[in-house]
Specification:
- The chain is built from one helix and 24 strands.
- It is an all-beta fold and 350 residues long.
- The model has no long low-confidence stretch (mean pLDDT 93).
C-alpha cells in the first residue's frame, strides 16, 4: 500500500513525499514523489504552487489503478493545496503519469476558481467507480464574526470528478443532491439583450438549486443575480446582490469567462469580496450552468468548471434575476428550493 503526504522543502517548494506499508501500521519512507518550485511565479498568482503542499491527493482520472499501464488517455492527477507562511492560497492539480516511485508532470491546472474557498480537497472512489471529492469552504468574515456565530467553516457538497477530452478535470454535484429539491419554477425560450435591465425570474430563496442551459452570442455577457434585496441603503436597484457572470469572447470562438461579482453582496465592510474568475470553454457559445446556493455558501459549475465561494448578505434578500448585454438565449431555466439535509436543529456536539 502506498500513500502520499504534503510537505515542503526549504528554498525549493511544496513537496509530495511517498510512503509504503504492508500492514497500514508501519510506514517506510520512499522519497519525494514530486517537488514543486516556489520560485516560479508570484504568491499573488492564481497558479502559484506555494512553499508547502497541504492535503495531497493522487488518483487516476477515470477508471484504472495508479501505477498500472494506462488503458486509455486518462491522466494521473496530483491534487494539492498551496500554502505559504501561514496563509492558505488555493487548490491546484498536476496532470501527468505516476510510474515507479515518481510522478512525471505534464501540465498544472486550477482546481476551483474560488481559491481558498475550496481548500484542502480530498477524494475517494465509491462502490460504483465514481471519483467523489469534498472541499473545505473557509470563512470570508472576521474572527469576531465567527466567534459570535459560534462556528467556522463548512464542507462543500460532494462533487464527481471526471476527465474531459483534453485530459483536464470536470466537476458536477453528485446526482444524489437532487433528492433535496422541492418547489420548482421553470422558464424556457427567453432571449435577453439590449440594455442590461434585470428581469425577475419568479424564483426566490436562500437555499436554491438553479440549472440553466444558455447560448451566448459573441461578446455577450449574461448576469445571474442571487440573494438580491429590494430597498435598503440604495434607491436604485438592490441594496445587496451577488452576481454570477458569463461572458463569451468577442471573436465568436469557443472560449469565455466565468466571474463571481461579490462587490455588492454584503453591506458588511469587513467581509471578503475579492474578485473570483477564470476561463470556461463555451463550444458554440453554449453553457450548462448549475448554481447551488445555501445561505452563505455558493457553488457554481459552468460546463464542468467549478467556482466556490462564501457570501454574507445582511438584508435577507432572496431575489433571483437575469440580465444580459448583447444577445443571450436562455434555452431552459429550472430552479428548485432546497430542503435541509438534517431534520430539525442539529447540535454542534455528538
Amino acid at each position: 500500500m502506498a500513500a502520499v503526504g504534503g510537505f515542503g522543502i526549504r528554498q525549493r517548494g511544496g513537496t509530495a513525499f511517498l510512503y509504503e506499508s504492508a500492514d497500514l501500521r508501519r510506514w517506510d519512507y520512499i522519497g519525494p514523489l514530486f517537488i514543486g518550485d516556489a520560485s516560479q511565479g508570484d504568491p499573488a498568482d492564481t497558479d502559484w504552487t506555494g512553499t508547502m503542499w497541504e492535503c495531497v491527493d493522487l488518483f487516476r482520472a477515470g477508471h484504472g489503478s495508479l501505477g498500472s499501464a494506462p488503458s486509455n488517455a486518462s491522466p494521473d492527477v496530483l491534487v494539492f493545496s498551496a500554502w505559504n507562511d501561514g496563509d492558505t492560497h488555493h487548490p491546484l492539480y498536476w496532470t501527468g503519469r505516476y510510474a515507479g516511485d515518481s510522478f512525471e508532470p505534464v501540465a498544472l491546472h486550477r482546481l476551483d476558481y474560488g481559491g481558498r474557498f475550496f481548500y484542502a480537497p480530498q477524494s475517494f472512489e465509491d462502490e460504483s467507480g465514481r471519483r467523489v471529492m469534498f472541499g473545505w469552504m473557509q470563512e470570508g468574515r472576521s474572527d469576531a464574526a465567527m466567534v459570535e456565530a459560534g462556528w467556522s467553516g463548512v464542507m462543500s457538497l460532494p462533487r464527481t470528478v471526471t476527465a474531459s477530452e483534453d485530459g483536464t478535470l470536470r466537476f458536477a454535484p453528485v446526482p444524489e443532491i437532487k433528492k433535496l429539491r422541492r418547489e420548482h419554477v421553470g422558464l424556457s425560450g427567453l432571449v435577453l439583450g439590449g440594455a442590461p435591465v434585470p428581469m425577475e425570474t419568479g424564483v426566490s430563496g436562500q437555499q436554491l438549486d438553479l440549472e440553466l442551459d444558455l447560448e451566448l452570442a459573441p461578446g455577450a455577457l449574461l448576469r445571474l443575480g442571487v440573494l438580491g434585496s429590494n430597498g435598503g441603503s440604495t434607491s436604485d436597484g438592490p441594496a445587496e446582490e451577488t452576481v454570477i457572470e458569463l461572458r463569451r469572447a468577442d471573436d465568436g470562438g469557443n472560449n469565455g469567462t466565468l466571474r463571481l461579482d461579490r462587490t455588492q453582496s454584503s453591506l458588511d465592510p469587513t467581509v471578503d469580496v475579492e474578485d473570483k474568475s477564470g476561463p470556461v470553454p463555451m463550444p458554440g457559445g453554449r453553457v450548462h450552468l448549475r448554481v447551488i446556493l445555501d445561505r452563505s455558501a455558493v457553488e457554481i459549475f459552468a460546463n464542468g468548471i467549478a467556482l466556490t465561494a462564501r457570501i454574507y448578505p445582511t438584508l435577507g434578500g432572496e431575489n433571483v434575476s437575469l440580465a444580459a448585454e448583447g444577445t443571450a438565449k436562455v434555452l431552459s431555466h429550472d430552479a428548485w428550493t432546497m430542503a435541509d439535509i438534517f431534520d430539525g436543529t442539529r447540535s454542534l456536539f455528538p
